[in-house]
Structure prediction request, 948 residues.
Amino acid sequence: MAEVNYICKRTVVSTKPVQPGKSHPLSVLDRLVEPSRHVMVVYYYRTDRSRERLGEVTQKLREGLAEVLTYFPPVTGRLVRTESRGSGEGGWSVKCNDAGVRMVEARAKGSVEDWLRNVDWEKEKRLIHWEEMYHKPYFWSTFYVQLTEFEGGGYAIGLSCSHLLSDPICATVLIKAWADVTLRGKMTSPPLFHQLPAHRPGSRTPNKDPFINLCSQRPTSTNQSATSSASVHGKHKTISLSFSDQMVRSCVASAQAHAGGPSPSPFEALAGLIWAVVSKIKGRRDGLVGLTMGLDIRKLLGLDDGFFGNCMVYSQIQPNSEENCLLAAAMAIREEKAKFEKEKVMDLIEWLEDNDGSKPTQQTLACSDLLCLNLESIDPRWAIFEDGSSPIQTSLYIEPTCDRGQFLVLPSPSEDGPLSRTVMIKLPRDEADKLLEDDLILQFAPTVLMGV
Amino acid sequence: MPPMLPDFSNSVKLKYVKLGYQYLVNHIITLTLIPIMVGILIEVLRLGPDELLGLWRSLHFDAVQILCSSFLVIFIATVYFMSKPRTIFLVDYACYKPPVTCRVPFSTFMEHSRLILKDKPKSVEFQMRILERSGLGEETCLPPAIHYIPPRPNMEAARGEAELVIFSAMDSLFQKTGLKPKDIDILIVNCSLFSPTPSLSAMVINKYKLRSNIKSFNLSGMGCSAGLISIDLARDLLQVHPNSNAVVVSTEIITPNYYQGNERAMLLPNCLFRMGGAAILLSNRQSDRRRAKYRLVHMVRTHKGADDKAYRCVFEEEDKEGKVGINLSKDLMAIAGEALKSNITTIGPLVLPASEQLLFLLTLIGRKIFNPKWKPYIPDFKQAFEHFCIHAGGRAVIDELQKNLQLSAEHVEASRMTLHRFGNTSSSSLWYEMSYIESKGRMKKGDRVWQIAFGSGFKCNSAVWKCNRSIKTPIDGPWADCIDRYPVHIPEVVKL
Prediction:
């Protein structure tokens, strides 16, 4: 039933030429990322097929994209290697050469509602276009957009981009700017391309150790083959659970240590819930499996909404609790989060800059860890391209998945309430099936959007 | 120091001598007539009215003689006015401005080239070197079908491009001139490389519902100089049909001609040709005399096709793999120079002032009789024209003409800037250049413009226009949004 026909592939360039000679250096947080990692987002929309012809919305969106790319020179640029400071290859930088982003246009049979009824990762992959880095990255586009129109009504926007340039939140910033320009003709928060904030030169304290168990997103050489083989063979399954506002509140209440104490945030509660359940499924009767948590530090550093680049820090939590329950998990997360203060984060950035050439002390994203990302700062109202038409569903992926699994906590696009959340979980196939039958999960009655 | 001053004063003296000579020769008739008129006037005043009357009576004219002579005068005047060729006015013209979404920056062009010609790195290198030295800018546009990876130049896309370009230009022309489609008497469309059935002129007639007794023509295969050939055809038709107007549409449809092989000489047009078109309204009606922008003064066409080398220098053929492309031969510049010389020899006597013609004649006689080693005198065309529109065929063409005609940078500015902003739009590039000059506010009443176009065959055509009324800025045209940024400095080689 669901067939996707690819119509064409082209390059979309900005409407105004870029000043020649511009380049965008990658920050230390950008450089921590393994080059093959990429972010993929899909947004689904409804349209009234009787009012809009097939192909009309594609053209409008493409013109809007050309407009908005004028403000994002690094997005239309290409990766080049800079001179290396020590031994080995130099780091990456983006040369803003005005080359454009690739865009694929496609048509699908049926309507968007039919598609969403039984969608999974395999099907969603067909709505997103991605190409692995070429041997010569100078001709490799870092951003790919696919616009799929459903013949029965509705359309899907698939954006994929290299994680070197943008984390998931940054990708949504681009989509927000695109939506603003298409709908209104101007952006509410223009993009900013500047370095991460640093201490003033005088108050730098050299060589302070990082305050957290910092994780870079590079797999170690021994684990790399294991990672790629797992994702290639499709041993993972994606589940998307939507927790309503009321259910999230009751989860928060369960994760509260004692009545009258500090109330955990929805992220802490839900992440704790998933962590506890996954640990149980993986066979840990007592205690929790290792978790690597990724937090957005934009608000912490006081950065504007339009900041472009990676701004997430990954820290490894080794819990010492003997219990395997929601409460313990939530508390462990809470403790880790509390460590994040502005000064300490800036020290961390400094430390990274000083140790840029050699990274022996950083641990790498070992496959023994579960990965969890807090993406609550993405506002679902950011992606409104047409009047009154907000996305009916959003999916977000970070590929390649690590062996153990990963889960992302996003706000829900529905009008349910401020605390409603969607959690996208990717686990090995058998574990994923067990997750859906777990009592603890069922207690909070989530709607299963994907993975049945 | 002493040596400096004499040189300077020498050159100044020479300049004044030259100016004096030119003034004397160009106004020789006025200068000889004035003393004669003054002499007669003084004589008449001296004689007084009575003596004049006496002089008149002594001639013994009677009524019949006076009547016959006046009839003779009237008869000669009528014959003269009847046989004078009709004045052709250019009422207005409109150039097509491509949408910004069709823009092709250098890096995108090179990337596509690399993706399509994956296993031919030498061809990609060659294209890159051409693009670096081409004189094009980052805002030139290619039609949508060429933006696809791989390009999809099918007939439907070609028709789509033709409709987009021609209809936009014509709508713009109708809006500027207030012309109603039903009033068009003659329609000429020229597009060299795309010639479908029914023709593009039929496409225009169908879209705008033109009259059934319209005289329509479609010129194809005539290269980049076809624009001026169409104007020449319109002029001839307007001599035959009184009180008519003619619409000329000049364009080049890029879609079907994107060369997909890897023969170097044929890859060149891919790098230079870009989307563009123009629609021009010509008229011979006296009522248009007031509002017309230009008047057509001369039209000179030179064809060097009789020479085999000239005939084969721009040749469309199949390469070794069977892919069709346009082969540009290495002696293109030399042949262009020859064709230009031929054209100048014909147009020179028509437009040059008497002083230049005299010098040329004297030098010619001198070379023939006295010493063949004298350098041939190249007439100074800057005295005959205020503005030059040289077809923006490529940087080499403009450089060559600038050298041959000894033009300054300002004279060729319109051509260079058109090449930079719009690329080589083939037959319509002359109109973009005219629009540039107008947008800069340089076009004043009485200015003479020389349009030169080269084309396959090998042809060199010239048109001379005289500005009818000063054109005030700002004008609505393809340069409206970017004229303030020009002129830009175009580097010899752009580093990619």
Remarks:
- Confidence is low (pLDDT under 50) at residues 220-233 of chain A.
